[in-house]
Write a structure and sequence with these properties.
Shape of chain B: flat
Order of helices and strands of chain A: HHHHHHHHHEEHHHHHHHHHHHHH
Largest sheet of chain B: none
Number of strands of chain A: 2
Strand order of the largest sheet of chain A: 1-2
Oligomer: heterodimer
Largest interface: A-B, 64 and 70 residues
Distance between the termini of chain A: 64 Å
Strand content of chain A: under 5%
Number of domains of chain B: 2
Order of helices and strands of chain B: HHHHH
Radius of gyration of chain B: 23 Å
Structural class of chain B: mainly alpha
Chain lengths: 501, 143
């Protein structure tokens, strides 16, 4: 292992990690450019490198891109990548009140911590962790999606009914196109363009960014409060907040690692689950959604931990946990590396060099993230709205188009944005709609497949309610839904008791 | 009955129509294909009924009204035109014009021509930079 550590620390590999993190952060910060695209674009450059160096470069790009999504989420309320959805919930309110620099700094440190936990999990316990992924069947994915949907109650900010309706709207939007099981063509109005359904990236840009853009021009108020003079990156304050939220930080990183191991779950689900847990266990849950640093810490540490977590099934089982993992798996195959349980023995040098390289890239993310974050905050908070609004317009147009080079996605993005803006006027927030849209297909596929399996084995109820992991997830879901009611009741009882005294 | 109440009833009517349509369409789908559209449709119908009942029975607080609606509507029209014309007139031309129109809509006060020209030049540079980054560096085939 010492050889691998030294090999990862060569100037060339460190330079690759640094360049990868910088490129990944910049690409991830642009709405519409996902981590998948960042990794895919750079794969051909790694073919001429030795396998470990190529992997370090791709891992660094992936790490940077997942973190980069936080900038747009915090400063423009548009998650640069789906993984940063939960970051926008508290990051943007922080920026609105003038703490954008603090939110960016917190996101940097939390991402670095989460990334390190994920990479360490990959280093120490990859093979046993990979077996957990194999125990996840369709029913477990169904319940995981339901757990994510239970977050609507958390995100609704005092308007639970409207939140639940928004979730149903999102669920309805997710059913547009071909059915995930069975191939039914649904709600396409005979238009072949809608056969593929609503792509998540244009939908994210439209639902989150267009209403911000429209509201931006409605008033003369600044988009976000400007940084106070002399305040730099607020490192000490951010570290202090993170120390006070250390349990949340560790728990969210572990959640991110475990969710990252599950194929197809990804950073968005990890961020949302960690956010939900952070809110449930917080003493200041009323602050969530209004600019709570704990929300940013939970989301960012969890989504960055999915990078290392996602490599566990990729390297040990050959099952990519996320789309970027699938691309990296392809790159590994081109390099002639056979993944599988024996990889950590037969190609130990390459694998451990890569894991140490990933750790170095995560550490390098701190100075890179702080520098880019500081510049991004100062730039966005000082640009006049008359320039910022059209500049965001250019970025959302290219972002929606670039995903699949499809002009229809751009129109879809604007249409969804208009819908979100109108709904906002009626008091419906975008987040529950996004949750329904993202988790709908996972829930539907899991439910139908689970039902078919249960039907074939003659025990449908047992299939859904009799498996240990399912029971655990159902328990967490109930806890998420009932905890706020229980804690409110307890608080009222305590208040009543103190009044009598 | 205040303005907010009317808005909730209007939203409920829209949701009822949307949910009803989803339930109607789901009838022609296969058993498994219809489950989630029915779930979403039923949720919307039930939510619409509850929303309307809540609006009729008691009156929630009035929402705060921020700013004008005209400017956002103009901005939305500009974005829609930008999106529709993108494949027709190409990314660079549409984006330069689109960004320029959005810049004019977003101006809250009268500004000197020199400022407008500088801002326009900056946005044109941004469009060209984005076109270069995506078209040349990332090989995205721009329209």
């Amino acid at each position: 292992m010492l050889d691998a550590l030294l090999s990862a620390a060569t100037p060339f590999n460190l330079m690759l990690a640094l360049v990868g993190v910088v490129l990944g952060t910049v690409i991830g910060a642009l709405p519409g450019l996902s981590a998948t695209m960042a990794v895919a674009v750079l794969v051909p450059f790694t073919f001429t490198m030795d396998p470990a160096s190529g992997l370090i470069a791709l891992g660094a790009v992936y790490t940077g891109a997942i973190y980069g999504g936080a900038y747009a989420a915090i400063l423009v309320n548009t998650p640069g990548t789906p993984a940063a959805i939960a970051t926008a919930l508290d990051g943007f309110p922080m920026a609105k009140r003038g703490d954008g620099d603090l939110a960016v700094t917190i996101s940097c440190f939390a991402s670095a911590f989460g990334g390190m936990v994920g990479a360490l999990a990959l280093l120490v316990v990859a093979p046993p962790l990979a077996t957990i992924a194999l125990k996840f069947g369709p029913v477990e994915y169904f319940w995981l999606a339901i757990f994510g949907l239970s977050l609507i109650a958390v995100l609704s900010k005092g308007a639970t009914l409207k939140g639940l309706i928004g979730g149903c709207l999102g669920l309805g939007l997710s059913t547009i196109g071909s059915a995930v099981v069975g191939g039914d063509v649904r709600f396409t109005f005979g238009n072949p363009v809608l056969l593929g359904g609503i792509h998540i990236i244009p939908a994210l840009i439209g639902l989150y960014c267009v209403p911000v853009l429209l509201n931006m021009v409605a008033t003369d108020d600044p988009h976000i409060e400007r940084a106070a003079t002399g305040r730099g990156t607020r490192i000490a304050e951010a570290l202090g907040l993170m120390w006070r939220s250390k349990v949340n930080l560790v728990r969210s990183s572990v959640v991110g690692t475990v969710v990252g191991i599950l194929p197809a779950a990804g950073g968005a689900v990890a961020g949302l689950v960690a956010y939900s847990e952070a809110r449930r266990t917080s003493r200041h849950k009323d602050q969530f959604g209004k600019g709570a640093a704990d929300g940013v810490i939970a989301s960012e540490s969890a989504n960055s931990a999915t990078v290392g977590g996602g490599f566990v099934p990729t390297l040990v089982l050959g099952i990519p946990g996320t789309p970027p993992d699938a691309i990296i798996l392809g790159a590994l195959m081109v390099q002639g590396i056979r993944v599988g349980p024996q990889l950590f023995v037969e190609q130990a040098s390459t694998v451990y060099t890569f894991i140490f390289g990933l750790l170095f890239a995560t550490v390098l993310m701190i100075p890179v993230g702080l520098m880019i974050g500081r510049t991004a905050f100062r730039t966005i908070s000082s640009i006049p709205k008359a320039v910022l609004a059209p500049a965001i317009g250019v970025l959302i147009m290219i972002g929606a188009f670039a995903v699949e080079q499809n002009p229809t996605h751009v129109v879809m993005m604007v249409a969804l944005g208009a819908m979100a803006w109108v709904l906002l006027k009626f008091g419906f927030e975008a987040s529950p709609i996004v949750l329904g849209l993202i988790l709908g297909p996972i829930a539907e596929q899991g439910f139908v497949q689970g039902y078919l399996i249960g039907n074939a084995s003659g025990n449908i109820w047992g299939e859904f309610f009799g498996r240990p992991i399912s029971i655990a997830i159902i328990g967490f879901t109930l806890l998420t839904l009932l905890w706020p009611l229980w804690s409110d009741r307890k608080a009222r009882a305590t208040q009543k008791g103190s009044l009598y005294e | 009955m205040n303005r907010f109440l009317h808005r909730d009833i209007a939203a409920a009517a829209g949701l009822l129509a949307l949910g009803g349509y989803a339930l109607w369409e789901a009838q022609s789908m296969s058993v498994f294909g219809a489950i989630f559209p029915q779930l979403a449709g039923a949720g919307m119908v039930l939510g619409a009924i509850l929303l309307a009942l809540r609006a009729l029975i008691w009156s929630p607080a009035l929402p705060t009204n921020t700013g004008t609606v005209l400017r956002p509507l103009l901005m939305l029209a500009a974005l829609a035109a930008w999106a529709i014309l993108l494949p027709v007139t190409g990314f660079v031309a549409t984006s330069v014009v689109g960004a320029g129109v959005c810049m004019i809509i977003a101006q809250q006060h009268a500004v000197p021509f020199r400022t407008l020209a500088l801002q326009g030049a900056g946005l044109t540079a941004l469009v060209l930079l984005v076109a270069l980054l995506f078209g040349r560096l990332l090989n995205v085939p721009l329209p």
